[in-house]
Amino acid sequence: xxxxxxxxxxxxxxxxxxxxxxxxxxxxxxxxxxxxxxxxxxxxxxxxxxxxxxxxxxxxxxxxxxxxxxxxxxxxxxxxxxxxxx
Length: 86
Hints:
86 residues; mainly alpha; 0% strand
């Protein structure tokens, strides 16, 4: 389906900037916003629902290069601590 919208210039610019930060086209970003509206209206109520949501969104296992998440977290923590020493 194709829909044409006349957005106020300010809103279009805001959406375009947000889309650029995520390396998405404006139409891809708007589709993502529309798809997530259900989560905002009916947020996960427990841990199992949250994990299911993350799996459906592709967040879980989105970084196959990280084989040991705890070691990776320790590495990030050390890097952050060293930044504070400068």
